Amino acid sequence: MTIMRKRTAAGLTGLAALTALALPLYGDWSSEATTPQPAATEVTRPVPTAVVTRDTPWVTRDFPGSVRANRRVELAFDLDGLLVELDAREGHAVAAGTVLARLDDRDARNALSAAQARFDDARRTLDRARELRGQRMVSESEYDKARAALDIAQAELQAREKAVTDTVLRAPFDGVVAARHLENHERVTAGQAVLSLQDGSRIEVVIQVPERLIAQGGLEALHNPRVRFDVEGRRWFAARTHEYRLQPDQATRTYDLTIALAPPPGINILPGMNATVRTDIDQPPVATGAPTEVITRVPSEAVWRDADGACHVWVVPEAGGTPRRVRVEPGPLRDGQMLILSGLRPGQRVAVAGLRALREDLPVRPRLAGKRGLEG
């Protein structure tokens, strides 16, 4: 029994010593495990933004149009006849006065010869009547009849001379033969179109303008028109407003507006080609509370309303940071953008998406173009 108690006491003594040696090691491990870790850095979220711009007193619009020559004419004879000469070729330039077509003039010249004979006879009759009147051998009424007969003969002679002249069709101005409607040796009637002649020294582009724009000032509201042709598609050419029709199209309620310009260098522009006309159009003024307030523009999706109905935007710092809620006074919509009558300055950035998730204590930054997610 004595030996057993000694062994037990010795075991307890060894266990106590082992426990004492292990306590420092255990205490160090427990302390390291309970040390508080530093808080994770809050992520700066990228948000889509847009730059606030100053409102302009005009808006730029593009209109599709069609090219036409500034002078166009359908050439026809004033009398019936048989075509004996038609040498004008389509697409060829002709000078003013050039003979384009002729009719058989034999009948016209025969009629002219007969009229010339009647005129000569009437003139001789009047000369005799004048001589006899001086001798009091004819009455005044007979003399007046002779004079009237000469006047009639002279009028007929002039008509026959014009008929001979009308058998020849000449170009009234420098231009290009746009179309030939008949062929040689065909019989034509008076007024029937033979050729189409167009003057290409200047070009006209016809566009359709809504009646609302015409009502807001007409041609005076359109400024700085320029034209781009679809066949070239890169350059804009300066032009000017020329005229517009007072009669609208009954179906579309638009007015034809004509834009004129010189032929552009390096491009062969022909009537019928497509073009685009860009012009600045005056906008009606918008009244503000303060005369010095700058009217700005933002995308309509940047503006949101609170529970009280007040309009706000989130202004995002250019270099990033916490956004700022700014109350604004909205104006009318123009081309998908909302006018802001007060509250913003040109150059500021406003959020255009995720507006309900933004807070004034949540750091954000403008999203980079073409990026997605947190990389933006």
Automatic annotation (TrEMBL):
Lineage of producing organism: Bacteria, Pseudomonadati, Pseudomonadota, Gammaproteobacteria, Chromatiales
NCBIfam families: RND_mfp (TIGR01730)
Signal peptide, first to last residue: 1-22
Protein name: RND family efflux transporter MFP subunit
Pfam families listed in its UniProt record: BSH_CzcB (PF25973), RND-MFP_C (PF25967)
Domain Multidrug resistance protein MdtA-like C-terminal permuted SH3, residue spans: 298-355
Family per similarity comment: Belongs to the membrane fusion protein (MFP) (TC 8.A.1) family.
Keywords of this entry: Coiled coil, Signal
Origin species: Marichromatium gracile
InterPro entries xrefs: BSH_CzcB-like, MdtA-like_C, RND_pump_MFP
Domain CzcB-like barrel-sandwich hybrid stretches: 77-199
SUPFAM superfamilies, A to Z: HlyD-like secretion proteins (SSF111369)
Coiled-coil annotated residue ranges, if any: 112-163
